[in-house]
């Protein structure tokens, strides 16, 4: 298949950037979206051009590096799918595809489609951990966990920190990500002791990074490759109100 | 947003039920309006309930708007560079994206509405007439455009509530899981019923069912 790509090109943080149009030919429908970009980049390199910079690592949907906005939708229109797992068979031959980086002030563009998601790391540093004396691993069944709590914590823990929720949110809010971490740690006994201080520091850090406020539009959960539910945001709000009391 | 919004919703419920007294006839409706002004007398001064309501409502509206403006400004700051592609909503449709301008339309409506039925400034019967006569005169068939404006504004109020109602519970952390989905559906049903209740009055007057 052949495609017309409109790709955001930006030489560096200081460059103002622009959309550039490319033709890619002989794309196999079995290729992933990133492989299609590899084809484009190989050609650009042969022609002596600068290849399109994009983040990626695992290419199997678990690392959270590969985010980009495809035709206006974070990770593309395919539900519950990261960009690296999105296949070209979902596109029509001859289609025009626009590709943009995540757009949010706390995620500055480094180059082309690569943004700096350091803001997420700082939210994690603010409280997304548990303090335990390290040593040999305890027996797995030494602390019982209710099945429902374990399931809910596990669901929240599937968040890969990709940032699609921020990219899709009309408010540029990081609530779904932050709430997923708070829920995941708070529901388990190991995360219990720091539950109150965690939610306060992480929410404060999220606000300090310049993310917008949540208005429950639900755009985040709709694009989340891991289907993190809005329930985690209710949980975060509940914990926050309790801790702030 | 959630707390002030909840106050406004409580007011709307009371207001809708109060308006329905119009169908019980002129005396009943005017007596109700009179009761609002005299309840608690002589223990309390005249208009105690009404004045208190007005103060709480005014405060709620102002704080609600202040919160909305703050959120909108934070949102604008959080996304200085816009997307080139027009974003299609991936969530449950467009209603949630009408909240900001929808809210402005509702406020403009409330201003007109107060000038119309509370102060009588833009009402043919004026301030001197009884509340019942003001309503009936305001929605005469010849003034169909007033009714049309009310219908449009009330539909906007309904859309605002359709999102606002469940969103308030979510913000306060009061729902999760199956309950959230139930509440979401409940919000749609409740908003529709409330707005139909409100719409009954102007439409009944305009088609001549209430004179
Ligand atoms: C068709 C629908 C409606 C009708 C027929 C109606 C009718 C009235 C009437 C007759 C009054 C004056 C009551 C009196 O002087 O005792 C009034 C007051 C008021 N209405 Fe409505 N109303 C409607 C919808 C709404 C809606 C949707 C809102 C808000 C979004 C609203 C907000 C108010 C406010 C804030 C007051 C003033 C309350 C006060 O003075 O304490 N109304 N309405
Ligand atoms: S909540 Fe979903 S969209 Fe947001 S960072 Fe985690 S995996 Fe990505
Ligand atoms: S490259 Fe790791 S999730 Fe896509």
From TrEMBL, chain A:
Its cofactor is [2Fe-2S] cluster; [3Fe-4S] cluster. It comes from the Bacteria. Residues 18-103 form the 2Fe-2S ferredoxin-type domain. GO terms for molecular function: 2 iron, 2 sulfur cluster binding; electron transfer activity; metal ion binding. InterPro entries: 2Fe-2S_ferredoxin-like_sf, 2Fe-2S_ferredoxin-type, 2Fe2S_fd_BS, 4Fe4S_Fe-S-bd, 4Fe4S_Fe_S_CS, Beta-grasp_dom_sf, Helical_ferredxn, SDH/FRD_Iron-Sulfur. The keyword Cell division does not apply. One of its GO terms (biological process) is respiratory electron transport chain. Belongs to the succinate dehydrogenase/fumarate reductase iron-sulfur protein family. This is Succinate dehydrogenase.
From TrEMBL, chain B:
Keywords: Membrane, Transmembrane, Transmembrane helix. It comes from the Bacteria. One of its GO terms (cellular component) is membrane. It comes from Sphaerisporangium melleum. SUPFAM superfamilies: Fumarate reductase respiratory complex transmembrane subunits (SSF81343). The chain crosses the membrane at residues 49-72, 93-115, 144-161, 182-210. NCBIfam families: sdhC_b558_fam (TIGR02046). This is Succinate dehydrogenase.
């Amino acid at each position: 298949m052949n495609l017309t790509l409109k790709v955001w090109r930006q030489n560096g943080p200081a460059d103002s950037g622009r959309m550039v149009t490319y033709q890619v030919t002989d794309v196999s429908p079995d290729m992933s979206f990133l492989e299609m970009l590899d084809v484009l980049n190989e050609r650009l390199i042969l022609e002596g051009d600068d290849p399109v910079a994009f983040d990626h690592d695992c290419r199997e949907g678990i690392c959270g590096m590969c985010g980009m906005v495809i035709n206006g939708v974070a990770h593309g229109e395919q539900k519950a799918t990261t960009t690296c797992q999105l296949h070209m068979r979902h596109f029509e031959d001859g289609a025009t595809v626009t590709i943009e980086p995540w757009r949010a002030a706390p995620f500055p563009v480094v180059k082309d489609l690569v943004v700096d998601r350091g803001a997420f790391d700082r939210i994690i540093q603010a409280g997304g951990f548990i303090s335990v004396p390290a040593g040999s691993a305890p027996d797995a069944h030494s602390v019982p966990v209710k099945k429902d709590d374990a399931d809910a914590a596990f669901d929240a823990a599937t968040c890969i920190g990709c940032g699609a929720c921020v990219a899709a949110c009309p408010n540029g809010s990081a609530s779904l990500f932050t709430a997923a971490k708070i829920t995941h740690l708070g529901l388990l006994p190991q995360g219990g002791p720091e539950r109150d201080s965690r939610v306060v520091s992480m929410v404060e850090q999220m606000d300090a990074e310049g993310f917008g406020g949540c208005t429950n539009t639900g755009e985040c959960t709709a694009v989340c490759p891991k289907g993190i539910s809005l329930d985690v945001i209710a949980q975060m709000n509940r914990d926050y109100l309790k801790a702030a009391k | 947003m959630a707390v002030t919004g909840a106050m406004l919703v409580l007011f709307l419920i009371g207001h809708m039920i109060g308006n329905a007294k119009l169908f019980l006839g002129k005396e009943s409706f005017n007596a109700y309006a009179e009761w609002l002004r005299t309840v608690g007398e002589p223990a309390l001064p005249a208009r105690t309930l009404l004045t208190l309501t007005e103060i709480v409502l005014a405060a709620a509206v102002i704080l609600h708007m202040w919160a909305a403006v703050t959120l909108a400004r934070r949102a604008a700051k959080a996304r200085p560079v816009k997307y080139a592609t027009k974003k299609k909503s991936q969530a449950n449709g467009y209603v949630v994206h009408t909240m900001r301008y929808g809210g402005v339309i509702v406020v403009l409506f409330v201003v007109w509405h107060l000038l119309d039925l509370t102060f009588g400034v833009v009402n043919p019967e004026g301030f001197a007439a009884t509340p019942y006569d003001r309503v009936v005169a305001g929605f005469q068939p010849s003034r169909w455009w007033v009714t049309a404006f009310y219908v449009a504004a009330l539909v906007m109020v309904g859309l605002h509530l359709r999102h606002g109602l469940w969103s308030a519970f979510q913000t306060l952390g009061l729902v999760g899981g199956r309950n959230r989905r139930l509440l979401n559906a409940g919000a749609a049903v409740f908003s529709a019923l409330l707005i139909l209740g409100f719409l009954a009055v102007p439409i009944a007057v305009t088609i001549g069912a209430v004179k």
